[in-house]
Specification:
Elements (H helix, E strand, L loop, with lengths): L7 E5 L9 H11 L7 E5 L2 H11 L4 E3 L18 H7 L3 E4 L2 H7 L3 H13 L3 E6 L3 H5 L3 H12 L9 E5 L13 H18 L7 E5 L4 H8 L6 E4 L6 H9 L2
Parallel strand pairs: 1-2, 1-8, 2-3, 4-5, 5-6, 6-7, 7-8
Bound molecules: glyceraldehyde-3-phosphate (G3H).
Length: about 250
């Protein structure tokens, strides 16, 4: 972890959570204050919960974000949500280009880039996800794939304040498998090099690791050079686990 960069622990609830999850979220708020010296904390619940959670989190050290947005600000796009709507509901950040969206909805790098631009247009932070599949990894293509996704998905004009990059090896998501710290370091260093060569503030943009992060492996992963926090899926649904991961920063 780079000392100068404040870590971010972001929870992606994916398609999980009902109104009855408010208690779990309140437990996260209760624990977030004590962790403010260590990391920024963000929870991205399903859209149905964003406004309620954001209202509840007002004045706390826990921010609320979204998991996706449409590229346009408004219009005839049934069922979609714009970044402006998500900002209006209380989101401070939007995850874009998650591998599940790329796989389930055929989102290309170009679409992801437009969505990141939409987040910026609405004044929100874009958390852009990249990562290779098992097949690509086995073929020795990890850096090529990540490089291509970075080139295609990141808009011009990124700053340390408006962009977070999340490296999520697809094969590590929800599987309990994680790359070795050495492997994580290699990819994060590569991402850092890409960011510093392209953006003036590239050395300060946060790079998160995601994929089966849990309390038992968080300290080891967060200690890796150029790992500036985590994008947490399953373990972010439980306050005790989510807070324990932040505690490891
Ligand atoms: O966005 C989060 C990632 O997909 C990681 O999910 P996971 O922690 O359940 O493996």
């Amino acid at each position: 972890m780079t000392d100068a960069i404040r870590p971010l622990i972001a929870g992606n609830w994916k398609m999980n959570g009902l109104k009855s999850s408010l208690g779990e979220f309140e437990a996260m708020i209760a624990g977030a204050g004590a962790l403010a010296g260590k990391a920024d904390l963000l929870v991205c619940p399903p859209v149905t919960l964003i406004a309620g959670f954001a209202d509840r989190a007002l004045g706390s050290k826990l921010a609320v974000g979204a998991q996706d947005c449409h590229a346009k600000a408004s219009g005839a796009h049934t069922g979609d949500l714009s970044a402006e709507m998500l900002a209006d509901a209380g989101a401070g950040a939007i995850i874009v280009g998650h591998s599940e969206r790329r796989a389930d909805h055929g989102e290309t790098d170009a679409v992801v880039r437009q969505k990141a631009e939409a987040a910026w247009r609405a004044g929100l932070v874009a958390i852009v996800c990249i990562g290779e599949t098992q097949k690509q990894r086995d073929a020795g293509q990890t850096l090529d794939i990540c490089g291509g996704q970075l080139a295609g998905s990141l808009p011009d004009g990124a700053t340390a304040a408006n962009l977070v990059v999340a490296y999520e090896p697809v094969w590590a998501i929800g599987t309990g498998l994680t790359p070795t710290p050495k492997d994580v370091e290699q990819v994060h260093r590569f991402i850092r090099d890409v960011l510093t060569s392209r953006f003036k503030e590239g050395s300060k943009i946060r790079i998160l690791y995601g994929g089966s992060v849990k309390p038992s492996n968080a300290a080891e992963l967060m200690a890796v050079a150029d790992v500036n926090g985590a994008l947490v899926g399953g373990a972010s649904l439980k306050a005790t686990d989510f807070l324990a991961i932040a505690e490891a920063c």
